[in-house]
Amino acid sequence: MTSSASAPARIRIGSAPDSWGVWFPDDPQQVPWQRFLDEVSEAGYEWIELGPYGYLPTDPARLADETRRRGLTVSAGTVFTGLHHGPDVWDRTWAHVADIAALTRAMGAEHLVVIPSFWRDDKTGEVLEDRTLTAEQWRDLTTQTERLGREVRDRYGLRIVVHPHADTHVDSEENVSRFLDATDPDLVSLCLDTGHYAYCGGDSVKLIETFGERIGYLHLKQVDPEILAQVVADEVPFGPAVARGVMCEPPNGVPALGPVLDAARRLDVDLFAIVEQDMYPCPPEKPLPIARRTRDFLRSCGTPVRAPDTPNRSGK
Questions:
Q1: Sequence-ordered list of residues with C-beta below 8 angstroms from that of 45, at least 6 positions apart, any chain
Q2: How many other CB atoms are found less than 10 A from the CB of residue 34?
Q3: Is residue 316 part of a domain?
Q4: Is residue 20, in this structure, part of any structural domain at all?
Q5: Residue 235 falls in which region: left (phi positive, over 0), alpha (psi -120 to 50) or beta
Q6: Residues 55, 33: contact at Cβ < 8 Å?
Q7: Where does 107-182 have alpha helices with state H?
Q8: Between the CA of residue 232 and those of 227, 229, 238, what are the distances in Å?
Q9: Are the beta carbons of 307 and 44 closer than 8 angstroms?
Q10: CA separation for the pair 212, 306 (Å, rounded)
């Protein structure tokens, strides 16, 4: 994705179902998928992620029609994995990945966001396993992730981008660096989520400057530092922390997104930067105004986002 003189590098801004409070394929607290598609287009975005598999239509022809007539294009799908458990979980993992990868490819996207499994339940806080991996589990995580990257590339033509995430084993600066040092750059890239990385104490600009060649994708979000300090002190699981508002609307939190985007632009590669403000659960009328304000803020940072009154590519 390296740019050329005739095609300068771009940061392509989009949004995701997560910014509409969508965490599950089907949940009465979530907005219907039609409303999400209508509103994300109305807010001025052109790129979206699939979100939890089964939330948006899984028939490629229908999804292509629904997105096309709203001027939307899919940038990535998302899968959840527990690859540190070793080869024994491969078949179960691949069964989860294959359908999502096929739909992602059918929609013309090139990326598959890979989120490691949680060490504690994100709703109840139940500890599911030790929060620290053994040396053997680290080997399994890295080798099986490389295997996933190879299989997804060879079978579906997709690039995996691993997403450091709160309450997983790939979270802090130390663990992210260890993961990147132990994996093949040709097979494994990173989805840098600015909010999750800040949640876990990391510096996004430093990570981009240190591991620039590994940054394959961005998620843009911020954390409220006061709420973060409270949830860390109280050892609050990620789900309840989100319900407290730990992930907040830009530019009200950290990290500052302007410097992050500037650092990303200096890489001189094409990147997706997908707005993903965790808000589950949330009132159905809350996401659209936030999405509009966030679009305006990102435009002020020098990132082009289609204005909401601009006709989409279907001319409607």
A1: 13, 14, 15, 72, 275, 291, 295, 305, 306
A2: 12
A3: no
A4: yes
A5: left
A6: yes
A7: 135-156, 173-181
A8: 9, 5, 10
A9: yes
A10: 27
For the chain, which residues score pLDDT lower than 50?
1-6, 311-316
Instruction: Say if 236 falls within a structural domain.
Output: yes
Cα 296 from Cα 31, distance rounded (Å): 23
Separation between Cα atoms, residue 22 and residue 19, nearest integer Å: 7
Instruction: Judge whether 313 lies within some domain.
Output: no
Tokens 């279907």 -> residue: 314
What is the per-residue pLDDT for 311?
46
Of 254, 161, 97, nearest to 170 by C-alpha is 161
**Domains of the chain: total:** 1
Residue 295 tokens read as: 């679009």
C-beta atoms surrounding 162 within 10 Å: 29
Query: Would you call 7 exposed, middle or buried from its count of C-beta atoms within 10 A (0-12, 13-18, 19+)?
Result: exposed
Residue for token pair 């691949």: 94
For the domain that residue 119 is a member of, what is the CATH number? Answer: 3.20.20.150
* pLDDT for the residue numbered 307: 55
- Cis peptide preceding 311, ω within 30 of 0: no
Domain residues for 294?
11-300
pLDDT at 4: 42
- Integer Cα distance of 85 and 235 in angstroms: 25
